[in-house]
Write a structure and sequence with these properties.
The protein has 125 residues and is α+β, with helices and mostly antiparallel strands. The chain is built from six helices and three strands. A three-stranded antiparallel sheet has the order 2-1-3, with helices on both faces.
Length: 125
C-alpha cells in the first residue's frame, strides 16, 4: 500500500513550511541537504516538527492545502499537540516511527515562544 505524508518543517528562526510527499525520510533528507533551491533552502527550514500519514494521495493534498490556509497560531497549536518540545522528528522517521510513538525529548521551544508559552498551550500551570 502506498503511503503519503503531510509534514511541517521549521527553521531556527521560526519559519514554517508545509509539504506533502510519498517518501518522508528521503524528502526531509533533501530539505536538510538543501538539494533543491527554494523556500526551505532560503529560510533554512530543516527541522521536521510534525507529520501525518495518509493512504490516499488526494486526502494528503487536501490536508496540505487546508493546513497551509491556517493562521500561524493554529499551525503552532497543531505542532504542540503532537510534539510539544518541537523536537526534530527526522531522528525517528528513519525507523518509520509514528508521530504518536515516543518522541525524543529534545528541549527546543519554537522561536518566539518561551517555556511558559508552551506550558500554557499544554494547559500546564
Amino acid at each position: 500500500m502506498k503511503m503519503y505524508w503531510v509534514y511541517i518543517l521549521a527553521s531556527a528562526s521560526g519559519v514554517l513550511y508545509i509539504g506533502v510527499t510519498n517518501d518522508l525520510a528521503q524528502r526531509v533528507a533533501q530539505h536538510k541537504a538543501k538539494l533543491t533551491p527554494g523556500f526551505t533552502a532560503k529560510y533554512n527550514c530543516d527541522r521536521l516538527v510534525w507529520y501525518e500519514t495518509f493512504s490516499n494521495v488526494n486526502e494528503a493534498i487536501a490536508a496540505e492545502k487546508r493546513i497551509k490556509g491556517w493562521r500561524r497560531s493554529k499551525k503552532v497549536a497543531l505542532i504542540v499537540t503532537k510534539n510539544p518540545t518541537w523536537s526534530d522528528l527526522s531522528i525517528v522517521i528513519g525507523e518509520v516511527a509514528s508521530i504518536d510513538s515516543e518522541i525524543p525529548q529534545v528541549a527546543k521551544a519554537p522561536i518566539g515562544m518561551t517555556g511558559r508559552d508552551v506550558s500554557a498551550m499544554q494547559g500546564a500551570h
